[in-house]
Every structure is written in C-alpha cells, then in structure tokens.
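$ run holo --ligand "zinc ion" --emit tokens
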Amino acid sequence: MDILFSHPYLGCIVAALMGLQLGSFLNVVVWRLPLMMQRQWEAECAELHGAISEPAQAFNLSKPRSHCPACKTSLRAADLVPVLSYLWLKGKCAHCGVAVSVRYPLVELAMALLWGFCAWRWGFSVEALAWAGFGSVLVTLALIDADTMLLPDSLTLPLLWTGILCASFGVVQLPLLQSVWGAAAGYGVLWAVQAVFKLITGKQGMGEGDYKLLAALGAWLGWMVLPMVVLIASLLGVVVALGMRWQGSLKAGEPLPFGPSLVVAGLVCAAVDLHSGLYSF
Ligand SMILES: [Zn+2]
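-- output --
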C-alpha cells in the first residue's frame, strides 16, 4: 500500500482504474435515479387518490440486473468491463446488435481522467479521494440535469453536507466558516436572483435544485469563489444556448438546464485550486 503513496505515477494509475469502474456505476445511477424518483412520485400520487397500487417489481440501483433496453437480455460480466466491452463489441449489444450510446464509455473515460487527475494533483491521499468524490457527484448531477431537468436532493444535499464536514475535519484546505458561508450564500444568491426574475417576468427561471447545487459548490469552494463560479456558469449557459439555437436544437422560450454549466464552473474552480489561493492570504 505504501508504494501507492510514495510512487506518484502508480497512485495515479490505480486512481484512474478506480474512476473507470466507478464511471460504469455512475452510468447506472444517471439512468436509474430519475426513473426511481418518477416511480416514487407515481406511487405517492396513487396513494393520495386512494388507489390500491399493486406491489411494484423491485427497481433500484442494483435491481433488476443491467440489461439491454432493446432485447432485455441481462448483460454478462464480460459485457460490463468499462470501455473495453464497448470497443470489443464495436458499440453494439452482443445479443441483438442494437447500437449502444457512445456516452457510456466516454463517461467512464472522463471519470478515469478525473480520478487520475485528483491523485496527481493532491497525491494518493484522503484529500484527493474527497475531491474525486466531489467531482464524481457533480458529473452525475450534470448528466441527470441535461437528460431530465432534475437535480435530485438525494445527491445535492449529501454533497453540501460532506463539503462542510470535509472543511470541519480539515480534509480539504478550506476554513470551516468559508464553507458554511459558501453554502448559505450559494443558496441565497440564486434564490434572490430567481425572486427578482419572477417579480419582473412572472416566470420561473431556475429550479430549486440549482440553488442547492450552488450551495453545495459554496460548501466545497467557499463563498469567495462563488462570484467566479456564477460568472463562468452564466457565460457558459449563454454560449451553449446560442450554440443550440444556431444549431436548431433549442427553440425560443424553451428552458435550458443550468446545472451542467454550474458543474463545469465548479470543476474548473476546484481544479485550478482557486480557493486555496484566495484563502492563503
Ligand atoms: Zn440487445
């Protein structure tokens, strides 16, 4: 084990392999978590209306087993090797030959890069693990928001609390007060912007999930980094919206999720370690 801590490249490679495997699990979470939430809402609605709902088939992160959405064949262990299975099967289901989205191996590769980067930047340490976990949850949130316009509380709120806990135990180099104020300011700023926007236009511009996500970013990066996060995210949001309008994939008045822009801004600020620069003097 000591060799991982003393040998930087070996630590990076082991971390990248861990990220690769986690990326495979993350693809499952991105696909299943919104469906789990939808099923729960439907069950609650049915209960409210007094309907007797039939006991539903178990559906969670582990059940049913991973299967091809087209032919329903359960995937074998050999079909679940991150990236390699995709390349080996040439991006198709081994059973029915239907195309598998290239997003799956790309997410796995991105996670390998993220975990490898954290081990390189912070060494094979608890601090690196904390930042790798932070990045992994953010990537999950960005993908879910892009797909479904949802930012699940079951991810944003634990991210917020772990940020404050990491600061309080000194796992990350961020004074506790900066973290606490970061969480409060992150939520408050977007809430206030939204309140003014609603007063003027009568429309809902952002979801509550966005406030909770920025609160979590504030808890990890501190309140001083928040203006930079909001600036980068807003610029990115405008560029993406203009690009999609130009491409024709976004119609006028159609909402665009803000979560992915916030996530990219948060990852950039964490990667350049903006907070430790700001708080060191
Ligand atoms: Zn199939």
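-- notes --
Residues 17 and 112 are 6 Å apart (CA to CA).
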